[in-house]
Amino acid sequence: MLAAVPDMAFGIFDHVDRGADPVGTLYANRLALVETADRAGFRTYHVAEHHATPLGMAPSPGIFLAAIAQRTARLRFGPLVYLLPLYSPLRLIEEIAMLDQMSGGRFELGVGRGISPYELAYHGVDFHRSGKAS
Amino acid sequence: VNGEAAADAARRGVNVVSTLGNAALKPLVERYFESWRGEAGAVAPLVGAQRHVCVAETDAEAMAIARPAYKAWYDSLTSLWRSFNTVPMRFAESLERAIAGDAAIVGSPETVRVELERHLTETRCTYFVGRFAFGTLAHEDASRSLALFAREVMPHFRTV
Q1: pTM for the complete prediction?
Q2: DSSP run (H or E) holding A93
Q3: ipTM reported for the complex, 2 dp
Q4: Helix B109-123 to helix B22-35 angle, to the nearest 10 degrees?
Protein backbone atom coordinates (compact mmCIF):
# COMPACT_ATOMS: atom_id res chain seq x y z
CA MET A 1 0.00 0.00 0.00
CA LEU A 2 1.16 3.51 -0.73
CA ALA A 3 1.70 5.46 2.47
CA ALA A 4 0.35 8.77 1.24
CA VAL A 5 -3.29 7.77 0.94
CA PRO A 6 -5.65 5.83 3.20
CA ASP A 7 -7.60 2.72 2.30
CA MET A 8 -9.57 3.53 -0.80
CA ALA A 9 -12.92 2.43 -2.12
CA PHE A 10 -13.25 2.07 -5.88
CA GLY A 11 -16.29 2.58 -8.06
CA ILE A 12 -17.30 2.82 -11.68
CA PHE A 13 -19.28 5.54 -13.40
CA ASP A 14 -20.97 4.84 -16.72
CA HIS A 15 -22.81 7.12 -19.11
CA VAL A 16 -23.72 4.08 -21.24
CA ASP A 17 -22.96 6.42 -24.12
CA ARG A 18 -23.46 5.47 -27.75
CA GLY A 19 -20.42 3.74 -29.23
CA ALA A 20 -19.77 1.87 -32.47
CA ASP A 21 -21.97 -1.12 -31.62
CA PRO A 22 -25.74 -1.56 -31.97
CA VAL A 23 -27.61 -0.58 -28.83
CA GLY A 24 -28.44 -4.18 -27.91
CA THR A 25 -24.76 -5.07 -28.09
CA LEU A 26 -23.89 -1.96 -26.06
CA TYR A 27 -26.19 -3.12 -23.26
CA ALA A 28 -24.86 -6.68 -23.37
CA ASN A 29 -21.25 -5.52 -23.25
CA ARG A 30 -21.84 -3.08 -20.43
CA LEU A 31 -23.63 -5.71 -18.35
CA ALA A 32 -20.73 -8.10 -18.94
CA LEU A 33 -18.31 -5.40 -17.80
CA VAL A 34 -20.35 -4.87 -14.64
CA GLU A 35 -20.14 -8.60 -13.90
CA THR A 36 -16.37 -8.33 -14.22
CA ALA A 37 -16.35 -5.38 -11.82
CA ASP A 38 -18.43 -7.38 -9.35
CA ARG A 39 -15.85 -10.16 -9.31
CA ALA A 40 -12.90 -7.72 -9.25
CA GLY A 41 -13.82 -6.07 -5.95
CA PHE A 42 -15.22 -2.71 -6.97
CA ARG A 43 -17.58 -1.22 -4.40
CA THR A 44 -20.23 0.48 -6.52
CA TYR A 45 -21.43 0.87 -10.10
CA HIS A 46 -23.00 4.25 -10.88
CA VAL A 47 -25.08 4.83 -14.01
CA ALA A 48 -25.97 8.25 -15.39
CA GLU A 49 -29.42 9.40 -16.49
CA HIS A 50 -29.59 11.41 -19.71
CA HIS A 51 -32.31 12.00 -22.27
CA ALA A 52 -32.47 12.66 -26.00
CA THR A 53 -28.71 12.48 -26.39
CA PRO A 54 -26.19 9.82 -27.47
CA LEU A 55 -24.44 10.53 -24.17
CA GLY A 56 -26.92 8.32 -22.35
CA MET A 57 -28.47 5.23 -23.87
CA ALA A 58 -29.92 4.14 -20.51
CA PRO A 59 -32.51 6.91 -20.02
CA SER A 60 -34.47 4.66 -17.66
CA PRO A 61 -31.66 3.78 -15.25
CA GLY A 62 -33.95 1.70 -13.07
CA ILE A 63 -34.42 -0.82 -15.88
CA PHE A 64 -30.68 -1.12 -16.42
CA LEU A 65 -30.08 -1.43 -12.68
CA ALA A 66 -32.69 -4.17 -12.39
CA ALA A 67 -30.62 -6.24 -14.83
CA ILE A 68 -27.50 -5.52 -12.79
CA ALA A 69 -29.24 -6.59 -9.60
CA GLN A 70 -29.78 -10.02 -11.12
CA ARG A 71 -26.29 -10.42 -12.58
CA THR A 72 -24.12 -9.39 -9.63
CA ALA A 73 -23.64 -10.68 -6.10
CA ARG A 74 -21.66 -8.12 -4.09
CA LEU A 75 -21.45 -4.94 -6.13
CA ARG A 76 -23.51 -2.03 -4.89
CA PHE A 77 -25.16 0.03 -7.62
CA GLY A 78 -27.31 3.05 -8.26
CA PRO A 79 -28.09 6.06 -10.40
CA LEU A 80 -25.70 9.00 -10.47
CA VAL A 81 -28.12 10.58 -10.59
CA TYR A 82 -31.86 10.21 -10.84
CA LEU A 83 -33.09 13.48 -12.35
CA LEU A 84 -35.66 14.29 -9.67
CA PRO A 85 -37.65 16.89 -11.67
CA LEU A 86 -38.66 14.12 -14.08
CA TYR A 87 -40.23 11.76 -11.52
CA SER A 88 -43.37 11.44 -9.50
CA PRO A 89 -41.97 11.17 -5.96
CA LEU A 90 -44.11 8.18 -5.03
CA ARG A 91 -43.38 6.43 -8.32
CA LEU A 92 -39.65 6.86 -7.70
CA ILE A 93 -39.84 5.68 -4.10
CA GLU A 94 -41.57 2.52 -5.28
CA GLU A 95 -38.86 1.89 -7.87
CA ILE A 96 -36.10 2.41 -5.33
CA ALA A 97 -37.75 0.00 -2.91
CA MET A 98 -38.08 -2.63 -5.63
CA LEU A 99 -34.43 -2.34 -6.67
CA ASP A 100 -33.25 -2.52 -3.07
CA GLN A 101 -35.30 -5.64 -2.41
CA MET A 102 -34.26 -7.27 -5.69
CA SER A 103 -30.58 -6.83 -4.80
CA GLY A 104 -30.58 -7.73 -1.13
CA GLY A 105 -29.99 -4.15 -0.05
CA ARG A 106 -27.26 -3.20 -2.52
CA PHE A 107 -29.02 -0.20 -4.01
CA GLU A 108 -27.26 3.15 -3.56
CA LEU A 109 -29.35 6.25 -4.18
CA GLY A 110 -28.04 9.25 -6.09
CA VAL A 111 -30.28 12.22 -6.82
CA GLY A 112 -29.93 15.60 -8.47
CA ARG A 113 -31.43 18.21 -10.71
CA GLY A 114 -29.43 17.45 -13.84
CA ILE A 115 -27.12 19.79 -15.72
CA SER A 116 -28.79 20.09 -19.12
CA PRO A 117 -31.72 22.47 -19.61
CA TYR A 118 -32.31 20.91 -23.03
CA GLU A 119 -32.85 17.42 -21.66
CA LEU A 120 -35.38 18.65 -19.12
CA ALA A 121 -37.11 20.76 -21.76
CA TYR A 122 -37.85 17.64 -23.83
CA HIS A 123 -39.94 16.53 -20.84
CA GLY A 124 -41.66 19.89 -20.54
CA VAL A 125 -39.69 20.88 -17.43
CA ASP A 126 -38.23 24.39 -17.14
CA PHE A 127 -34.68 23.93 -15.87
CA HIS A 128 -34.70 27.32 -14.17
CA ARG A 129 -37.81 26.41 -12.18
CA SER A 130 -36.74 22.86 -11.39
CA GLY A 131 -34.78 23.51 -8.21
CA LYS A 132 -37.70 23.16 -5.81
CA ALA A 133 -40.30 20.41 -5.73
CA SER A 134 -43.85 21.70 -5.71
CA VAL B 1 -20.46 22.87 -6.88
CA ASN B 2 -19.23 25.15 -4.14
CA GLY B 3 -17.95 25.03 -0.59
CA GLU B 4 -21.34 25.54 1.01
CA ALA B 5 -22.81 22.67 -1.02
CA ALA B 6 -19.96 20.45 0.15
CA ALA B 7 -20.57 21.48 3.76
CA ASP B 8 -24.29 20.83 3.41
CA ALA B 9 -23.64 17.36 1.99
CA ALA B 10 -21.31 16.63 4.92
CA ARG B 11 -23.88 17.76 7.49
CA ARG B 12 -26.41 15.45 5.84
CA GLY B 13 -23.86 12.62 5.85
CA VAL B 14 -24.24 11.85 2.16
CA ASN B 15 -21.48 10.59 -0.10
CA VAL B 16 -20.35 12.87 -2.91
CA VAL B 17 -18.43 12.46 -6.18
CA SER B 18 -16.95 15.19 -8.35
CA THR B 19 -15.35 15.51 -11.78
CA LEU B 20 -13.45 18.66 -10.82
CA GLY B 21 -9.70 18.76 -11.29
CA ASN B 22 -7.45 18.26 -8.30
CA ALA B 23 -6.78 21.90 -7.46
CA ALA B 24 -10.47 22.82 -7.56
CA LEU B 25 -11.57 19.68 -5.75
CA LYS B 26 -9.13 19.84 -2.83
CA PRO B 27 -10.78 22.78 -0.99
CA LEU B 28 -14.21 21.17 -1.39
CA VAL B 29 -12.95 17.92 0.13
CA GLU B 30 -11.40 19.88 2.99
CA ARG B 31 -14.64 21.79 3.53
CA TYR B 32 -16.60 18.52 3.50
CA PHE B 33 -14.51 16.91 6.21
CA GLU B 34 -14.41 20.10 8.28
CA SER B 35 -18.22 19.99 8.31
CA TRP B 36 -18.69 16.27 8.80
CA ARG B 37 -19.54 15.30 12.35
CA GLY B 38 -19.85 11.56 12.38
CA GLU B 39 -20.94 9.99 15.62
CA ALA B 40 -18.64 7.49 17.32
CA GLY B 41 -18.44 4.36 15.24
CA ALA B 42 -19.98 6.01 12.20
CA VAL B 43 -18.79 4.82 8.83
CA ALA B 44 -16.73 7.53 7.17
CA PRO B 45 -18.47 8.96 4.12
CA LEU B 46 -17.17 8.53 0.60
CA VAL B 47 -15.81 11.67 -0.97
CA GLY B 48 -14.89 10.80 -4.49
CA ALA B 49 -13.03 11.90 -7.60
CA GLN B 50 -14.33 10.69 -10.93
CA ARG B 51 -11.94 10.25 -13.87
CA HIS B 52 -11.77 8.59 -17.27
CA VAL B 53 -9.43 5.61 -16.95
CA CYS B 54 -7.71 3.48 -19.55
CA VAL B 55 -5.04 0.94 -18.67
CA ALA B 56 -3.10 -1.13 -21.19
CA GLU B 57 0.24 -2.94 -21.25
CA THR B 58 2.10 0.21 -22.30
CA ASP B 59 1.54 3.94 -22.12
CA ALA B 60 1.56 4.19 -25.91
CA GLU B 61 -1.04 1.47 -26.34
CA ALA B 62 -3.31 2.97 -23.70
CA MET B 63 -3.15 6.40 -25.33
CA ALA B 64 -3.73 4.94 -28.78
CA ILE B 65 -6.95 3.18 -27.80
CA ALA B 66 -8.24 5.85 -25.43
CA ARG B 67 -7.68 8.89 -27.66
CA PRO B 68 -10.34 8.21 -30.34
CA ALA B 69 -12.71 6.72 -27.76
CA TYR B 70 -12.51 9.86 -25.63
CA LYS B 71 -13.18 12.01 -28.71
CA ALA B 72 -16.31 9.95 -29.46
CA TRP B 73 -17.44 10.34 -25.84
CA TYR B 74 -16.85 14.09 -25.96
CA ASP B 75 -18.84 14.33 -29.21
CA SER B 76 -21.73 12.53 -27.50
CA LEU B 77 -21.38 14.76 -24.44
CA THR B 78 -21.70 17.89 -26.52
CA SER B 79 -24.13 16.57 -29.14
CA LEU B 80 -27.37 17.92 -27.74
CA TRP B 81 -25.75 21.18 -26.64
CA ARG B 82 -24.36 21.76 -30.14
CA SER B 83 -27.88 21.28 -31.52
CA PHE B 84 -28.75 24.43 -29.59
CA ASN B 85 -25.59 26.24 -30.67
CA THR B 86 -23.78 26.11 -27.37
CA VAL B 87 -21.14 23.97 -25.65
CA PRO B 88 -21.21 22.71 -22.07
CA MET B 89 -18.73 24.17 -19.67
CA ARG B 90 -15.39 22.90 -18.46
CA PHE B 91 -15.11 19.51 -20.17
CA ALA B 92 -11.86 18.86 -22.05
CA GLU B 93 -12.32 18.29 -25.77
CA SER B 94 -9.30 16.01 -26.17
CA LEU B 95 -7.71 13.23 -24.15
CA GLU B 96 -4.48 15.18 -23.78
CA ARG B 97 -6.34 18.16 -22.31
CA ALA B 98 -8.34 15.84 -20.07
CA ILE B 99 -5.16 14.32 -18.67
CA ALA B 100 -3.60 17.76 -18.20
CA GLY B 101 -6.73 18.89 -16.36
CA ASP B 102 -6.84 15.84 -14.06
CA ALA B 103 -9.97 14.51 -15.78
CA ALA B 104 -8.36 11.33 -17.12
CA ILE B 105 -5.71 8.80 -16.10
CA VAL B 106 -4.27 6.76 -18.94
CA GLY B 107 -1.27 4.48 -19.32
CA SER B 108 0.45 1.32 -18.22
CA PRO B 109 -0.42 -0.10 -14.79
CA GLU B 110 2.67 1.59 -13.32
CA THR B 111 1.84 4.95 -14.88
CA VAL B 112 -1.76 4.76 -13.71
CA ARG B 113 -0.69 3.74 -10.21
CA VAL B 114 1.64 6.71 -9.86
CA GLU B 115 -0.84 9.11 -11.38
CA LEU B 116 -3.71 7.86 -9.21
CA GLU B 117 -1.59 8.35 -6.11
CA ARG B 118 -0.98 11.94 -7.20
CA HIS B 119 -4.72 12.56 -7.65
CA LEU B 120 -5.56 11.08 -4.27
CA THR B 121 -2.73 12.81 -2.46
CA GLU B 122 -3.61 16.17 -3.95
CA THR B 123 -7.37 15.91 -3.32
CA ARG B 124 -7.49 13.74 -0.16
CA CYS B 125 -10.48 11.93 -1.64
CA THR B 126 -11.50 8.64 -0.02
CA TYR B 127 -13.25 7.22 -3.07
CA PHE B 128 -12.13 6.84 -6.67
CA VAL B 129 -14.63 6.39 -9.47
CA GLY B 130 -13.34 5.37 -12.89
CA ARG B 131 -15.02 5.62 -16.26
CA PHE B 132 -13.65 2.50 -17.89
CA ALA B 133 -16.07 2.23 -20.83
CA PHE B 134 -16.61 5.29 -22.97
CA GLY B 135 -17.11 6.32 -26.56
CA THR B 136 -15.91 3.84 -29.15
CA LEU B 137 -13.61 1.95 -26.81
CA ALA B 138 -13.95 -1.72 -27.76
CA HIS B 139 -15.52 -3.96 -25.15
CA GLU B 140 -12.41 -6.13 -25.12
CA ASP B 141 -10.18 -3.11 -24.45
CA ALA B 142 -12.45 -1.81 -21.69
CA SER B 143 -12.58 -5.25 -20.06
CA ARG B 144 -8.80 -5.61 -20.18
CA SER B 145 -8.37 -2.08 -18.81
CA LEU B 146 -10.68 -2.76 -15.91
CA ALA B 147 -9.02 -6.09 -15.15
CA LEU B 148 -5.53 -4.54 -15.21
CA PHE B 149 -6.69 -1.75 -12.94
CA ALA B 150 -8.21 -4.20 -10.46
CA ARG B 151 -5.19 -6.49 -10.46
CA GLU B 152 -2.26 -4.09 -10.82
CA VAL B 153 -3.47 -0.80 -9.35
CA MET B 154 -6.18 -1.25 -6.71
CA PRO B 155 -4.17 -3.48 -4.34
CA HIS B 156 -1.63 -0.68 -3.85
CA PHE B 157 -4.28 1.47 -2.22
CA ARG B 158 -5.58 -1.09 0.24
CA THR B 159 -4.19 -2.61 3.41
CA VAL B 160 -6.23 -5.80 3.10
Answers
A1: 0.94
A2: helix A89-102
A3: 0.95
A4: 50
